[in-house]
TrEMBL record:
Keywords: Leucine-rich repeat, Repeat, Signal
Ranges where the LRRCT domain occurs: 331-382
GO cellular component, one term: plasma membrane
Chain ranges of the LRRNT domain: 25-61
Keyword flag Flavoprotein: no
Gene3D superfamilies, A to Z: Ribonuclease Inhibitor (3.80.10.10)
Protein name: Nyctalopin
Pfam family, one: LRRNT
SMART domains, per the entry: LRR_TYP, LRRCT, LRRNT
Cleavable signal peptide: 1-18
Presence of keyword Signal: yes
Organism superkingdom: Eukaryota
Amino acid sequence: MLVLLLNAVVLGLPSTRATESCLHACPVPCSCSKAERGCTVRCDRAGLLRVPADFPCETDSIDLDHNGLRILGERVFGALPSLRRLSLRHNNLSFITPGAFKGLPRLAELCLAHNGNLRYLHARTFAALGRLRHLDLAACRLFSVPERLLAELPALHELIAFDNLFRLVPGALRGLANLTHAHLERGRIEAVASSSLQGLQRLRSLSLQANRIRAVHARAFRDCGALEHLLLNDNLLAVLPADAFLGLRRLRTLNLGGNRLGGVVRSWFTDMAELELLYLDRNSIAFVEEGAFQNLSGLLALHLNGNGLTVLSWAAFQPSFFLGRLFLFRNPWRCDCHLEWLRDWIEVSGLVAEVPCASPGSVAGLDLSQVVFVRSSDGLCVDPVELNLSASSPGPSLEPVATTVSRFGSLLSKLLAPRVLVEEVTNSTARLANASLSYTLPSRGVGNLGHKDTFLFASCVLLGVSQYVTFCLWRD
């Protein structure tokens, strides 16, 4: 028992000494505490205008967030062989001297985010940081990244560089064989070139959302075979090449929402057998090619809401059909027999909600799930009828004059329609039933009326008098 107690005391001595050393050597405006791997130094919100001169030798983490640091000189942190994390967020850094991080051989995480005056980084800024895995350059207002800047970081896994002023995907990313996550959202990037992502064979997540991307070049992602999440939403994409996503066989999430796409092309998704989430919402999509989703057998959710779709063919999903959620709201759906399959699928699966009908008139305003399709005598589906204004009014009209005037308006629109013979207008009362209430005058002036135009003008005058007389009689 005595032996065990002595061993515990002896083993505890280094830890006690390390704690005492950490607290004793702590910079004056900072607070220090012993951590599992070493000493944690917190100097955030301390009003510092320069980096403290000395840190405990065993320092593992330094937090200098929310201070007034402007310049980092060479070897400004001295020699800290145990330092793994350094955070300099929310300062006023405008210049980092090449070699500022020398003496930090084990640094794995460096945060420089929200230094809006930085704007430029020297190509040798991160020299000697061969073990850096996480680099945060968000909101530094950088215009570009030197080609050789990241070449010094062979172990880099994650690059966070959103809210910057890049117009192109930084060329410094090329060849980063170990990069797995790249965050480049909310910038000014205008295109993804065919060479932008070369050599990124381990990239798993790429965020390019909320930029100004108008073009994605063919085979732009050909080297990104490990990519699982690709976010291109809220850009300016109107068209995409047929082989834009060629090679993305492991992709699980593709977000193309909030662009200007006018249709969905089948060839985009040919390699995406593992895709689970597909966002095509908030575009201008008016058509979907047959078989567009035929390879997406593992899809869990398809977002087509907020587009201009009037019809969605069952052939778009053939030969397979997914069993996930389908989001179709905010589209001007025409609920005729072309959507009967979808109505049936909604009833059976319950995986679709809110498919509001915009037409035909007899079902406008209803949800597709409420539409009843009747059958003809030979068993064929019969489309709901397209109602005119009068037929769509519920119950008998309480304003006979308005009905009469509407009929006169319909007749007038027929009489004044360009290039239509007067005899054709009076052919049948059935043609008048669906006439528009609006009308336009002939393009020629009244002073140049011909024989037919004189007749039309006289008809207009007589029609106006008839309307006035009918109105007066109704009032009496």
